Write the structure tokens for this entry.
Amino acid sequence: MEQWRAEVVALWEKGKSLFIVSHLEMENRVVAARNLSPLKKSLSSRQQLMDLGLWVSAGKAFHAESITIGVDSDVGIGTSLVSMYSKCRDIVGSHRVFDEMPDRNLVTCNAMIRGCSRNGDMGSASFSFERMLEKTEVTWAEMIDGYARNGVIIAARRLFNCSPHEMRNLVTWTVMIDGYVRIGQLKTARQLFEEMPQRNCYSW
């Protein structure tokens, strides 16, 4: 792992533009995975560096290596690969990893929804959302934010209105307000802001 960290620093000093993919999140998942050898940890460390242009092919190579060393079936590794592909704008690769995973959890499903929505595929995001038997605040926030970011503000507000009360937290309110601000509906954004039960610096 330290060797790969050193290579990252070297590449950065040469002026290469690197895209950091869920650095702390990925490292925590790999360390927590069962029976991961130092080689498997090194694999995850390398996955942290995926540039949209130069590093897509490297990401695929790391995926192939994860299959070779037998960690691709781990839910944490699989989730990281789903996230990696979507952040590299390869939503087909993200779907393929997701569909082939033997086990998935809420984090995996949320990563798939986020990946689809950030790549403009709200149809697939909605399909994944509807199939989930259990949803968290993150799930609802990702879907609302996805609709808002893709300009489907009516669908975003409809989903916000029908979200369970216990799922309507600070993040959910904020992404809905941000959606209105993005399209210039400042009056509606202000009205919703005034209705918020609590606020923080991000809301303001």
